[in-house]
Amino acid sequence: MKTENTAAAQIRTERRVIAKHASLLVGRIFLLVCLCVLFYPLRPSSVYLFAYTALFPWIFANILASRHEGKNPPVILSSCAKKYFYTPDHFRAETYTKNCLIFFLVIWQLSLNRTAAYPA
Predict the structure, then answer these.
(1) Are 49 and 105 in contact, with CB atoms under 8 Å apart?
(2) Nearest to 31 by CA among 100, 111, 119, 115
(3) Which of 24, 33, 50, 84 has the fewest beta carbons under 10 Å from its own?
(4) CA–CA distance, 115 with 111 (Å, rounded to integer)
(5) What is the chain's percent helix, strand, coil content, to nearest 5?
(6) How many other C-beta atoms lie within 10 A of the C-beta of residue 29?
(7) Could you tell me if 80 and 52 are in contact, meaning their C-beta atoms sit under 8 angstroms apart?
């Protein structure tokens, strides 16, 4: 009885984490499309943010994967995890990238408002 409850709780937790990972992935892809549209009008900053958004999760996930080789527990919902490219390392990389991107976008907006070259 207790093992069934713990297995069900683990499945719910994995489903929630995989859904968070999928939403972070979709949000990052949407941001890449928006930054691609802004390549020319807002040149230097949008190109840097685009490069960071495109490359950093891949680089950081590879660094984490090499550090945590064999230490991650197996995923019960493996078919769903494969569908959304979920691993605990990819989820950590996406979360860290999201936090950094929010910071960089706020700084970018503040710098645009200071120069008054662009409408707020």
Answers:
(1) yes
(2) 100
(3) 33
(4) 6
(5) 80, 0, 20
(6) 12
(7) no
Structure tokens at 92: 């950590």
Please give the structure tokens belonging to residue 51.
């490069």
SS3 31: helix
> What confidence tens digit (pLDDT) does each residue in 9-65 have?
888 998 999 999 999 999 999 999 998 888 888 778 888 889 999 999 999 988 888
**45, 117 Cβ separation under 8 angstroms:** no
Can you spell out the DSSP letters for 50-92? Answer: HHHHHHHHHHHHHHHHHHTTTTSPPPS-HHHHHHTT--HHHHH
CA 35 – CA 46 distance, rounded (Å): 6
Closest CA to 72 of 93, 97, 89, 90: 89
Does 87 or 30 have the greater pLDDT score?
A: 30
Local confidence band at 1 (pLDDT 50, 70, 90 cut-offs): low
DSSP 7: H
